[in-house]
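Q: My labmate handed me this sequence with no annotations at all. I'd like to see what the chain might look like in three dimensions before we decide whether it's worth expressing. Could you predict it?
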Amino acid sequence: MKCRFCNNELIHEVIDLVNAPPSNSYITKDKLNNLEVFYPLKVFICDRCLLVQIDEYKKSEEIFSDNYAYYSSFSSSWLEHSKKYSEMIIEKLQLNSNSFVTEIASNDGYLLQYFVQKNIPCLGIEPTTNTTLEAEKKGVKSLVTFFNSELAYTIQESDLIIGNNVLAHVPDINDFVKGLKIALKPKGTITMEFPHILNLIKFGQFDTIYHEHYSYLSLLTVIEIFKTYGLCVYDVDEIETHGGSIRIYATHDSIGIKTSGKVVDLLFKESQYNLHKIEGYLSLQEKAFNIKLDFLDFLISAKKSNKKVIAYGAAAKGNTLLNYCGVKKDLINFVIDKSQFKQGQYLPGSHIPIVDISKINEVRPDYILILPWNLKKEIIDELSFTKEWGAKFVTAIPNLEII
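A: Here is what I predict for the chain of 403 residues:
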């Protein structure tokens, strides 16, 4: 196995989560008895460039298919985050009707709809047909394809290129960043948001590891990748999304723009957690194992006490947690999800059924396990009616918490 950035041989293992099915491969009832394919879920780190990564066991074209189950607009907090970003960046870059904005992995138009509302010309690039149909309803024009350097030559150069939670999802990160430079106007800006590996290591967020996340990114390594293709990361924001992410701002290095002090500060913070050397990444396996033990202790104890446990949120991260811990529907009755595109299906691996929210009132569970823990506050507020019978909320990461 070679590093997807520098082609160095990978010999250092960060964590082994054994085998798992692709996290967004939800199962219909008629296929429950079919053979289910599991792939290795093992993470390595390159000792040359420090890029943390998994191998490409399943091709992007298979993962991001026409029936991709994730729709960004189902999270109200994510929509709020996206609207605030649009307002900030429009003012920061003075975007108007003469500007052009491109978003890579635009999903269902959750973000570009706010640029459409401001009459700013924009284009979404999204490989999943079902989500782009939803984007069209919001007035968002989309190309149904993957972004790469070849495509970059064919689209209009952009004043702003946006990529939220896509940089970690591309197997060929070199060609992707090369394409960003090609598609960017001479004085344009790129913003990319991605989960910060510092938080993954610090808080044991191993459930954010799954097959469609090919890379796990530090600011240090991203700066090096962008620099290789003539791009300069000139600013950075630390943001709360997805359990702690960063948003980078980049442009052509030929402009000679001054680097923000926030970039220097965050690089120093990463060094304080030893993310500039191999040793800083090797605590994750033990943290994951301890989380597994505590989580299983809770579920088994609840079962022995005849307590009813359900889950909320058929999220990819939840599938990593459940499959690593070996949890099936005998310990968790069902999972609630707001997306009608997931309801009536079953979680991959665990085969826990996905149902709509009305099932909560019928069952009146004692415990509600929040799988997308990054949306904990939003979910607890939404399910506040469960106080009526004294239901408690549970999160497993970064440690078991009963609320």
